[in-house]
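pipeline: protein-struct stage 2 | run 1193 | Translocation protein TolB
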Amino acid sequence: MTPDSGETHLANVRQITFGGENAEAYFSHDDQWLTFQSTRDGRACDQQYVVRVDGTQLARVSNGEGKTTCGWFLPGDRRLFFASTHAAGAACPAKPDPSKGYVWGIDPYDIYTANRDGSDLKRLTNYGVYTAEGVLSPDGTRIVFTSLKDGDLDIYTMSVDGSDVRRLTTTPGYDGGPWWSPDGTKIVYRAWHYAPEDSAGLRQYRELLGQRMIRPNRMELFVMNADGSDQRQITRLGGANFGPSWTPDGRRIVFSSNHQNPRSRNFDLFAVNLDGTGLEQITRNPEFDGFPMFSHDGKRLVWASNRGADRAGDTNLFIAEWRP
């Protein structure tokens, strides 16, 4: 598959999945496998899968109950962790009331670990509220994640065995999507905070949160040190900016955004410096592009996209060689 016009950083674009909703694909440490979430096999909500980067040897990791999200390979690539709602019920969580407009459901995820074939499933957290979006630190010792466990959507870290939980963010409003820098010293994340004078906005946010929903139409990118210090805003683009990760050299952030038309569902991938300068557009397809991750060797980029879909709404995984 050839890249869209203007996608000069992407070469030899290849589609990995075909049909359904497939998203949040993240590389194993040896760059030979991906873990991702999918509604394949006629399922009404996501389960967690692994697949080789060439699209072969697809296998389900999660137990087929509830809904899953945000998988990641543990050191050695033999086990993974991911978030699942199955402890709250075998059925898919109820979808948000359409009368609320465009909202995301804050489902009761907790984080689990399992072998790559799905065996030996173990529960890592036990909060019974939204606890997901986990990413492993580069040294393999800690997990950063987002949780509602203290009443707001905040960012935490914990040891890989679930111990030593530390809260990093406390500002009222949404903080999520955390991702370690390649050297493990910083964390990038998405957030929307409310100024003291915007008491009505904060009240509406909390009312939705009480109904286990958020309205994700406004998000900007922030960065902080790995211990939560020096929190600072990177982007001021408007619209929804989310799914941040890092270039392999740790100097830039790659993310998805609809800031060019905030009322649109056309998201593209962009890159930006840590001080907010040097904004560069990576994808130019008139459909959704999101959840970017570089391979550990820095040679490839994987992401999810609606491009080339056989049916409206299909989201598939794509991989490309990266041209700096």
